[in-house]
Amino acid sequence: MTIHPSALISPEAELADDVVVGPFVVIEGPVQLAAGVTIGGHAWLCGDTSLGEGCSVGWGSVIGANPQDLGFDPARRSGVRIGARNHIREYVTIHRSSKEGGHTTLGEGNYLMTGVHLGHDSQVGDGNVLANNVMFGGHVHLGSRAFLGGGGGYHQFLHIGDLAMVQGNAVVSQDVPPYCIVYGKNQLAGLNSVGLRRAGWDGAARAEIKKAYGLLFGSGLTLGKALEAAAALEWSPAARCLIDAVAKPSRKGVIAHS
Questions:
Q1: Whole-number pLDDT of residue 257
Q2: Residue 42 among the catalytic residues
Q3: Predicted confidence (pLDDT) at residue 155 exceeds the cutoff of 90
Q4: Most-buried pick from 22, 51, 78, 100 (CB within 10 A)?
Q5: What's the rounded Cα separation, in Å, for the pair 183 and 243?
Q6: 14-60 residue pLDDT tens
Q7: Helices in the chain by DSSP H: which ranges?
Q8: Residue 100: is it exposed, middle or buried by C-beta count within 10 angstroms (0-12/13-18/19+)?
Q9: 187: number of Cβ within 10 Å
């Protein structure tokens, strides 16, 4: 274990033997750091927060702080759960859940660039890239292998599907369907075809997804009628994921216009 002499480590914290802690780091409360974790200088980790193996936390990041919720009681017990191999760069903020016993969660293998903010109760899957200054309100659900461009703002409670791609500086206040590209203010641009190929979907699966996308968003039918038409057909699991996301959106509804 390599701990800079200026770091402040709570006796409640549990650190693996090979953890590296930089200068002026504060680890407050029962924080748990697994093997291979590296914490950059001036970071602050607090409360019921755990980081999985091989994570790195950049300079000045804050993980586990109270949610930005005006009705939150600081005595409420909640925390942050971060899986393995996440790269969290400088000045990232990840707030703990606003619910008793709840957790803000980050899966495995994600890359959060400088200044990313994950609001309370956000749930993030695996293998995502969030570019500089992406901002999540509370209760945002992000799937896996998505790419979110820098400076994007995401309203609370919405869902972002697997393999989605969102342009930088976008303003998103409705669900982003799986496999789709979004730009501007809730504008749907089409399918993330390159992302689908890179994810290993074969030609047949991609064709099914394209067919489902065309029915939902390009047929001229209302979403309700398009979903009725889709329900009468057989679909691959990949295409069904897109249809289900549209049929069962969050309370914010789904982006469905271009």
A1: 75
A2: no
A3: yes
A4: 51
A5: 21
A6: 999 999 999 999 999 999 999 999 999 999 999 999 999 999 999 99
A7: 193-198, 203-217, 223-231, 237-247
A8: exposed
A9: 15
Examine the residue annotation and report whether 202 is marked as an active-site residue of this protein: no
Per-residue tokens: 182? 């979004």
Token pair for residue 48?
């019921």
- Based on the residue annotation, tell me whether 139 is a catalytic residue of this protein: no
With a CB cutoff of 8 Å and minimum separation 6, the contacts of 55 are 33, 34, 36, 37, 38, 82, 84, 85, 86, 87, 88
Q: How far is CA 20 from the centre of its chain?
A: 25
Q: Can you give the pLDDT at residue 98?
A: 98
Domains delineated in the chain: 2-139 (2.160.10.10), 196-247 (1.20.1180)
* Residue of 238, 231, 174, 234 lying closest to 203 (CA atoms): 238
- Which tokens hold the place of 196? 């689908």
**Contact between residue 27 and residue 9 where contact means Cβ atoms under 8 Å apart:** yes
pLDDT at 258 over 70: no
In total, the chain counts a number of residues equal to 258
Mean pLDDT in residue range 59-76: 97
> Measured between alpha carbons, how far is 100 from 185 in angstroms, rounded to an integer?
34
Phi then psi dihedrals of residue 242, to 5 deg:
-65, -45
Catalytic residue among 48, 107, 117, 121: 121
Give bridge partners of residue 106 from the DSSP assignment: 82, 124
pTM to 2 decimal places: 0.97
Of these residues, 138, 143, 161, 195, which one is catalytic?
A: 138
Return the residue matching tokens 């697994």. 34
